[in-house]
Amino acid sequence: MTSSASFDTLESLQADIAELIARLPTLKNRQFIQQALATIVRLADSEIERLDWKILSAALADMERGFELFYDYRHVRKVTIFGSARLAADTPEYQMALEFAHAVSQLGFMVMTGGGGGIMQAGHEGAGRENSFGLNIQLPFEQEANPFIEGDPKLIHFKYFFTRKLFLLKESDAVALFPGGFGTQDEAFECMTLSQTGKFGPVPLVLIDRPGGDYWRSWSEYIDKQLVQNGLVSPEDPSLYTVTDNLDVACDAITRFYQVYHSSRYVGDQLVIRLKTDISDALVEQLNADFSDIIVKGRIEKSQALPQEAQDETVGLPRLILYFNQRDLGRLYQMIATINQMGTPSAEDAAHPERK
Question: Which domain of life is it from (predicted)?
Fold first, then answer.
């Protein structure tokens, strides 16, 4: 390391960080570690308040706990369940959430909730402790951890809502929303907004009501009447979600999403869609014909992993690549549905949609 006198300037601090990183064991994410430390140093040289440092420190601690918890479960798909903390165990909504959580856990998925009561408790009761994650937060009311997750090492406590919500979505491969209050509505609209803008997913979003209930059906009618018909969202945006009061439909919406589709990412300006199994040339031609409106240039083409994906764990999966316009996400969801409907998964993939 350089002498302590060199810490008098920002430049020397950054040089010391580079030297420190160089002395660490070989790390595949060395570049990002250096960037993170350099950001801290730049902030240290800035005029920010003590409260800002407290927020930064606590948020990093929240993220540290989340990253460490979920790393060992990165190859298992998870369903996040949102809904009211106030619904008692004798309500139809609670029973529906319990049965849904049990059903998806039997399909091999794990369940994540906010760790509290009501619908969150139903999720853990249905899935069982071994298949559950609780992402709790301290509130003056409603938010004690429920007995089905209390004391489990997969229960973590967050200081901030934003870090908690980060993990509830970042680690999620599907979202199930049950009836709830302002918090549930916030979660529903944030899921829609992040999906619509390409900041989350693609993942299946399922809005589940009690049998014969109209909570989400009325919500969907509002979306159509006030947003779609007035041109405030695209006509295809309702393709982002499924509204149902039937457990079989809800579970099928999730498992079907991962029949052939695996995941996606951007490499430069290209959207790379990873598939569990190869699809026919005829289906690729159909996709080009049916979804040319979302392609900025070129065509949808088959591909193997791109050079930039050499370190990716999915390097062996077949891919589709396209220059997606990054705007019509509802249409992209429709294209994924076509791939899943027209593609032919292997028997192994069809039996295990939960595997990443």
Answer: Bacteria
Is-contact 175 206, C-beta < 8 A? yes
The token pair at 25 is: 């064991």
pTM score of the predicted model: 0.89
- HSE value, Cβ hemisphere, 13 Å, CA-based, for 232: 9
Q: Given the structure tokens 């249409």, which residue do they identify?
A: 331
Phi-psi category of 118—alpha, beta or left, where left has phi over 0 and alpha has psi -120 to 50? Answer: left
Residue 83 · residue 118 · CB < 8 Å: yes
- Side-chain-side CA neighbours of residue 325 (13 Å): 13
Token pair 């350099």: residue: 38
Query: Nearest-CA neighbor of 251 among 96, 89, 82?
Result: 96
pLDDT in tens, 49-101: 899 999 999 999 999 999 999 999 999 999 999 999 999 999 999 999 999 99
Q: With contact defined as beta carbons under 8 Å apart, do 328 and 236 qualify? A: yes
Q: In the chain, what are the domain boundaries?
A: 4-70, 72-257, 261-351
C-alpha of 53 from chain center: 28
* Whole-angstrom distance, CA of residue 1 vs CA of residue 40: 18
The architecture (CATH level 2) of 72-257 comes to 3-Layer(aba) Sandwich (3.40)
pLDDT bin (cut points 50, 70, 90) of residue 10 is low
- In the block, tokens 């240290």 appear at 44
Q: State yes or no: cis peptide before 25, omega within 30 of 0.
A: no
CA-wise closest residue to 300 among 267, 323, 317: 323
